[in-house]
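Session log. Operator J.P. requested a structure for one protein chain; no other inputs attached. Running the standard single-chain path with token output.
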Amino acid sequence: MDSPLMEPLLESGTVVVMDESRSTGVVSAQGEKTVDDDDNVGGDEMGDDAEADEMAARMERRLAALPGKAHESEPFTIFRVAGPMRERNRHLYEPQMVSIGPFHRGAGRHLAAMEAHKWRYLRDLVARGAPLAAYARAARAMEPRARRRYAEPVALSAREFAETLLLDGCFVVEFFLKGEERAEDALVDAAWAMQNVYNDLLLLENQLPFFVLERFYGIATGGRGGRDHFVSNVLVNYLTVDMGASQDAERSRPPDDGEIHHLLHLYYHWFLPPEHRPPGSGCEASEEPVSKPAVDERAPWQLPPASELKDAGVTLRAKASPRSLVDVTFDARAGALEIPAVESYTNHAIFANLLAYEQSRGRWELQRLVSYVLLMASLVDARRDVEILQRAGVFARGDGDGEAAAFYAHLGELCPPPEFVDNCYAGLFRDVRAHCGRSWNRHRAVLVHDYFSNPWTSMSAAAAVVLLVLTVVQTVYTVLPYYNPG
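Structure written below.
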């Protein structure tokens, strides 16, 4: 329905066409414009230029607010775990008892109880002597540097972020100090609480930059012992209590390859220390990424199951004095695949976050733990494979439910596809394939399996050989007089 205000214009035979930004002219009833289009070209261009300049100025202000410089890599060390596998395994990557850092701050009611403990621990830390203002000044000073360690924007103001650093950092430091002093505390003394806090402190998404913890530890102790004492205390008393690992003083030293990023990085360094090994001895770093060979020489990126390796003449045995869990080697002369013994399959969360951390380090970093998990997942494909590795001493006996196989199969799902992994066992795979490709090794394995697998079959085979020899001798002595009567 036409508006009364439009009626005079309709009767006069003209229509005014209006745009939100500017008028485009008056058009006659026959469709002729009273203002030519060319008359406004210059004005349109000037308007577009002004809008572009305004947009550029607005974006320039945002660019100027970014930290760092152009072509300078950001120092990201704390990431969220990405991908669909995370959504199906959230319990492996999200804190179950205590949140540390901004990613899971106030994430759920199940974390609320520990927020009260954080304030209690802060009070205990301040009671050691240093005023709260000293921690607050340190937190405000570290806030810009700490914020740049997180790989995604943190939606907290500078004051809120500094308070998070202060409250969470002081909680971690006091937690370590109470454990070092063996002080009575309901949280530290409760075994279930200790294990849950321990797990949460090693989640990739639940980290504070290590320099924050170092600074607060120095304030609380007056610089007692320095960085090395803090690192060794954390390692010996906390980070090495699981996985059935021994506490080696040599491995408890700080990493010598640069800055410690966070507690998970420190644990990764202890769990997988650098290995100085001769070329060709197994999982080793190279100056260039491992390149896949030609199609006709392409090594498999997964090993056959243990049962197939055994049938192909490969001997599997536990490695004596391994350097780390990933110290898997193949002795080509003896045809022996040596694997470090695995003592525990309980802590899925620690392994999952070590894998996530390793994949966050960059594409040029050697993926030693990912390579190891893919190797083990390929070895234990069935119950028979587990039994073979148990007899070899690699797995503990009594794994009636296939816990080891399920453990590595599940971790294998958290790894990228094998063809996209810079696998540190490429040389080992080639050697194993070459060994399995020799027919003599396979025939010898069948002979040993069928006739020498236990004493009874061995005795039967020996008796058969003796009987065969006697039969041959008897035949010779029977036939010989026929050709030599004298």
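Operator note: The radius of gyration is 35 Å.
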